[in-house]
Write a structure and sequence with these properties.
This protein is of the alpha/beta class. It has 2 domains: 214 residues, 3-Layer(aba) Sandwich (Rossmann fold); 126 residues, UDP-galactose 4-epimerase, domain 1 (Alpha-Beta Complex). The protein is 39% helix and 14% strand. Strands 1-4-3-2-5-6-7-11 form an 8-stranded mixed β-sheet, sandwiched between helices. It has a two-stranded parallel sheet with strand order 8-10. A two-stranded parallel sheet has the order 9-12. Helix 1 packs across helix 6, helix 2 packs parallel to helix 3 and helix 7 packs parallel to helix 11. The longest helix is centred in the first third of the chain and has 21 residues. The two termini are 32 Å apart.
Length: 379
């Protein structure tokens, strides 16, 4: 997702505001139909998917991100700016008369080394978004939260009633964002929170690129403790469908989202290997040795794998999606394995272009392996 670093950028650097270039509030009728939407983090991976879907559905979109947004469309305005800039957001809200904010901007723990900046961007930025919505009569904020609200699984699907218990800074920042929207600004606008597991889609790279490189080169793909854990993903397209379904939801709500029929990690990896025609095999590392080693490597900044990845590799985590299916009529369309195969094929088909990418979000480039490269050489 697009980050918000970049205070000091020229306020409102607008490289597209419509066919004639005028930054004016264009007609958008009340009630169901086309909406004017403020999209934070529009240059990021999820932001780009949402932007495309909103435009295809006929909505008008203003994207705010510190990164350059490549989108070009007569109903799209792209603003380079920081969501912590209250003046910028207030000016945009006054000019465009937004109905909804899709707030997906966030800094990721593995993408930045400055913990204070991550907290400020994710938490203070959310407070500015909330204040803007209240002060300018914006009806709704739809917010991406995370399964990082929990440090471990509960031994069963996690429901909306389960109390969050994050163990690392990204999860804590997402919980703080939820509390700002749901508690501090309760009653000022409707909030829909979508608690997401790892988003997987064609074009999604980041840490997944490490797995894909192992498979492409026929290396052993390692699991922890036998790979019998079930860890839920969500397809990017399915998450976008949930955002669109949340538009105009008449109440404040919190929903867990994710795939159905979650396989074990070993089973999912095996399907990717088979689809790739790779000579890779799925291996297993003992949990009692692997998890402490990952912790030490992360503390020494030798590995990109942090507490979130320890859990994904070694533990179960699945959201109960009963509520979102009932309230929004939403259904997932892809399984974990289908998502991974699609993302792997994109990685292979675009390998040369991916290696040359610069200035893109963390999800659109391959993560630095660090010490994991040694593991690859030995696999």
């Amino acid at each position: 997702m697009g980050g918000q670093r970049g205070a000091g950028l020229p306020r409102g650097e607008d490289h597209l505001t419509g066919q004639d270039g005028d930054a004016v509030a264009l007609p958008c009728p009340p009630g169901p139909g086309p909406r004017r939407v403020l999209l934070t983090g529009g240059a990021g991976f999820l932001g780009q998917l949402l932007q495309e879907a909103l435009l295809a559905a006929g909505h008008r979109v203003v994207s705010v991100d510190v990164a350059a947004n490549p989108g070009v469309h007569p109903r799209l305005s792209c603003i380079r700016g920081d969501i912590r800039d209250a003046g910028l957001l207030g000016d945009l809200a006054a000019r465009h008369g937004f109905h909804t904010v899709f707030h997906v901007a966030a800094l990721l723990a593995h993408a930045v080394s400055d913990r204070a900046e991550l907290w400020s961007s994710n938490v203070d930025g959310t407070r500015v978004v909330a204040r803007t919505a209240r002060d300018h009569g914006i009806a709704q904020v739809v917010f991406t939260s995370s399964n990082c609200l929990w440090g471990t699984g509960l031994g069963r699907p996690v429901t909306e009633q389960d109390a969050p218990a994050p163990v690392e800074i990204y999860g804590r920042s997402k919980l703080a964002g939820e509390r700002i929207l749901l508690d501090e600004y309760a009653g000022d606008f409707r909030t829909v929170v979508l608690r997401c597991p790892t988003i997987v889609e064609a074009g999604r790279l980041g840490l997944l690129a490490i797995l894909f490189e192992f498979v492409q080169e026929g290396r052993t793909v390692w699991t922890v403790g036998g790979g019998s854990n079930r860890y839920q993903f969500v397809a990017g397209g399915d998450l976008v469908a949930a955002f669109l379904a949340a538009l105009d939801h008449p109440a404040t709500a919190v929903f867990g989202i994710g795939s159905d029929d979650v396989p074990t990690l070993r089973e999912a990896y095996a399907e990717v290997i088979a689809a790739a025609g790779s000579s890779s095999r799925v291996g297993s590392l003992p949990r009692r040795l692997a998890v402490p080693a990952m912790r030490v490597a992360h503390r020494l900044r030798l590995s990109p794998l942090g507490p979130y990845q320890y859990r994904m590799i070694a533990q179960d985590f699945v959201f109960d999606t009963t509520a979102i299916k009932r309230e929004l009529g939403w259904r997932p369309t892809l399984t974990n394995a289908q998502m991974l195969v699609r993302a792997y094929r994109y990685f292979v088909d675009n390998a040369a272009e991916i290696r040359g990418r610069t200035g893109v979000s963390a999800h659109r480039r391959a993560a630095d392996m660090g010490i994991i490269r040694v593991v690859k050489w030995l696999s």
